[in-house]
Automatic annotation (TrEMBL), chain A:
<keyword id="KW-0472">Membrane</keyword>
<keyword id="KW-0813">Transport</keyword>
<protein>
    <submittedName>
        <fullName>Tungstate transport system permease protein</fullName>
    </submittedName>
</protein>
<feature type="transmembrane region" description="Helical">
    <location>
        <begin position="34"/>
        <end position="53"/>
    </location>
</feature>
<dbReference type="GO" id="GO:0005886">
    <property type="term" value="C:plasma membrane"/>
</dbReference>
<feature type="transmembrane region" description="Helical">
    <location>
        <begin position="65"/>
        <end position="85"/>
    </location>
</feature>
<comment type="similarity">
    <text>Belongs to the binding-protein-dependent transport system permease family.</text>
</comment>
<feature type="transmembrane region" description="Helical">
    <location>
        <begin position="155"/>
        <end position="181"/>
    </location>
</feature>
<dbReference type="InterPro" id="IPR049783">
    <property type="entry name" value="ABC_perm_TupB-like"/>
</dbReference>
TrEMBL record, chain B:
<keyword id="KW-0067">ATP-binding</keyword>
<dbReference type="InterPro" id="IPR050093">
    <property type="entry name" value="ABC_SmlMolc_Importer"/>
</dbReference>
<dbReference type="GO" id="GO:0005524">
    <property type="term" value="F:ATP binding"/>
</dbReference>
<protein>
    <submittedName>
        <fullName>Phosphate ABC transporter ATP-binding protein (PhoT family)</fullName>
    </submittedName>
</protein>
<keyword id="KW-0813">Transport</keyword>
<dbReference type="InterPro" id="IPR017871">
    <property type="entry name" value="ABC_transporter-like_CS"/>
</dbReference>
<dbReference type="Pfam" id="PF00005">
    <property type="entry name" value="ABC_tran"/>
</dbReference>
<dbReference type="GO" id="GO:0016887">
    <property type="term" value="F:ATP hydrolysis activity"/>
</dbReference>
<keyword id="KW-0547">Nucleotide-binding</keyword>
Amino acid sequence: MNEIWAGLQAAFWLVARLDPDLVEITLRSLQVSVTALIIASAIALPFGTWLAIRRFRYRRATIAVLNALMGLPPVVVGLIVYLLLSRSGPFGVMGLLFTPTAMIMAQVIIITPLIASITHQAMRELWAEYHDLLISLNTSNRQRIGTLIFDGRRALLTAALAGFGRAIGEVGAIMIVGGNIDHATRVLTTAIALETGKGDFALALGLGFVLIALAMIVNFAIHVLSRTEREGRW
Amino acid sequence: MSMIATLTDATVKRRGKTILGPINFELAPAGITIVLGPNGAGKTTLLKVLHGVERLSSGRIQWSVPDAEARQSQAYVFQSPIMLRRTVGQNLAYPLKLVKAPKADIARRVAAWADKTGLADAIDRPATRLSGGEKQKLALGRALIRKPAVLFLDEPCANLDGRSTREIEALLAKAHADGTRIIMTTHDLGQARRLAQDVIFLLKGQYHDHGQAAAFFSKPRTAEAKSFLQGDIVE
């Protein structure tokens, strides 16, 4: 109990003093996770929607694989990305290992199936509603995907937020590919893991409270900006 | 643009059961055609295959213009209006945006059609919150905004009150006067008598009678059509 109280105090003073290290790793956490979210959304939203409207031979198998990939172990993703980016790996020449770019790559791999799967579920229902109208208007596949994404944007926001939640709280993969290097690749989650290892539970808890607050603020801000749960909105 | 459709042995089967056909006839290039028949006669299926949203199992439908052009110049109004999760104005604008109409043209036509459908005051309201009659008028406005050569309507006035039915019939009469070919199913014989120029009578998926409305209503050629017009249960 004392450690939780000490953690709350530590969190308060870290934020109140605008601790430079805290600001730096918080901004890096946001930079990595938001970039990963943007890239993953650009892939997953159209793909999940396409999967909802297209009928092809291995569609069911594709959906099953996509759903299975939602549970992709981050440590394994980290290991694979590490091997790909390490000096002896196929992309070693690019020198990306232990950089924020490598961390973004790992996070994109982890959250893309999650966002795509939730998108597919949401778009399947909307497609059932719109199917006859969009077919009768002779729309192209591209127009159908665009219409569904636009009209289902609030459901897709949930998918994106789920992806952001997974990305910002992820530690296994980014620890492996980022290396938790001070002033280079240290983010909130890897800093918490480090402080816990050092036995500084108060600071670790303080960073944990900052992380939770950050995730909640981002979620709340997006809900306010997108005007969900308002009268007359969808 | 007037278009003629020729159906040759047009047949639709689902799970081995014949829903429609084989049907052979030529659809006249102009006028208002009412498709009549009891439930399960294949009226909706006929409309859908003519419009191309449902495929034929066998046979063919040949439009007098290339298929792609025929589809682009047709519109369809469903029995249960499908509303995009957008405002009334955005619903009206949607078909025009699909063909990349100029913005000024879209704004002008949306305002005009909101006015014609009596929805000018509701232009910024979410379409899904409209009443049943308003939704059907919006669906009709959205279908007519591109000035289609052929308009298909599947029981557009089912479950609507008298006032909404009258308003929709007025919109249809105006569209017809402006040159749109109308093909519509209905259960309402009164409405069929008010609107029809020619009638197609379907029974059990078969083409049973087709003729000028006046002749069909006064001297139906088949016993089944006669029974149907008398209000008997026809199976």
